[in-house]
Write a structure and sequence with these properties.
With about 350 residues, this protein is mostly helical. It has 14 helices and no strands.
């Protein structure tokens, strides 16, 4: 029942953000905004998407190399794409579906692979925080952009100082919540062994921890860091290439730094549990283009709609193909029974 409620809430959120996005833009305006776009740029866009997902599978392979598991590249790539495919209708479920698929192909337990997924997500969060820090520095250095963002004249030093003084309580509250969460976690970890429902879960936890600790056994840490950087370069490229599709690089002088800002906006949008980021992605991207770069609403919404639709279409096309290829290769690898 709880899952049904979450799914209904996700649909409501998607509908709400779609309404926010499209309420002030007519279909004719949206169609006009896409009339002059270069559709040929969808080819390098699709290549950037496939590249980033393949590198994610390669990075996962390095993590699994720190455990006792050995998976083929095709299986891991199929698992990554399967996870993204499941995430479209069921947000967050793909994070569980991916290790379950690979574990089934390897004949291993889910717990060990889930541990590597948790570690991978932790690394993604750290990477995103670094990118957000760079984006924040970029924004803070541009007073005009900040003025449009907050709706006040930050060229006035008194307004600028007052704004950031008022942010300190929020920063302190955030730090306090982090420490509170850590304290609760420590308390639960000390008392959990007394709980009846954990009676037979010791082995599962051990396998989960083994997956988490796999980073200590990395044989190529620099390659792991390189893969992480390539993943984010691929994601940023997926925002940069559409700028050329709509000639925004010429009309509004947008480049790689701006694509990184839009990547952060898309990450925030996709953290909202609407199915496939529908609605939330459209709103955050179009709003960011409008408020930060003064891109007209129809153009910003067309940009968001095309990039989102292209991403979903590529996942829907690539995932089944990857699964079919992996199944075929798996059958090829299986030993045949000797003739009697």
């Amino acid at each position: 029942m709880n899952k049904v409620v979450k799914y209904i809430v996700g649909i409501i959120l998607a509908a709400f953000f779609l309404w926010l996005s499209f309420s002030d833009v007519s279909f004719q305006e949206l169609r006009k905004a896409t009339r002059g776009m270069s559709w040929s740029w969808l080819i390098p866009f699709s290549m950037a998407l496939t590249f980033s997902h393949y590198i994610r599978a390669e990075r996962w392979r390095l993590l699994l190399g720190g455990t006792t598991l050995d998976a083929h590249r095709t299986t891991l790539f199929a698992g990554v794409m399967f996870g993204y495919l499941i995430n479209i209708p069921f947000p967050r479920l793909g994070e569980i579906s991916r290790p379950m698929y690979v574990a089934k192909q390897l004949g291993e337990s889910n717990s060990k692979l889930v541990g590597t997924i948790v570690l991978e997500r932790f690394i993604d969060v750290i990477s995103m925080l670094i990118i957000m820090g760079l984006v924040a520095y970029f924004l803070l250095s541009d007073v005009d952009t900040l003025s449009r963002l907050f709706g006040v004249d930050l060229a006035n030093s008194q307004v600028y100082s007052a704004l950031f003084l008022n942010m300190w309580p929020l920063i302190i509250l955030g730090i306090g919540l982090i420490f509170l969460g850590y304290f609760i976690f420590k308390r639960l970890s000390k008392t959990s062994h007394k709980s009846i429902w954990l009676f037979n879960i010791k082995e599962i936890i051990a396998q989960f921890v083994e997956g988490l600790l796999s980073i200590k056994k990395l044989q190529q840490p620099l390659l792991f860091v390189g893969y992480t950087a390539l993943i984010w370069i691929g994601y940023i490229a997926m925002m940069y290439i559409p700028l050329w599709m709509f000639d925004l690089h010429l009309r509004f002088d947008l480049g790689w730094a701006d694509a990184a800002i839009l990547t952060v906006a898309s990450a925030v949008a996709l953290s909202i549990p609407s199915p496939g980021g529908i609605g939330s992605y459209h709103y955050f991207i179009s709003y960011s283009l409008g408020i930060l770069y003064m891109v007209p609403d129809p153009t910003g919404l067309a940009f968001a709609t095309i990039t989102h639709a292209a991403t979903m279409a590529m996942v829907i096309l690539i995932a089944p193909a990857a699964l079919a290829i992996d199944k075929f290769l798996l059958l090829q690898r299986e030993p045949t029974a000797p003739n009697v």
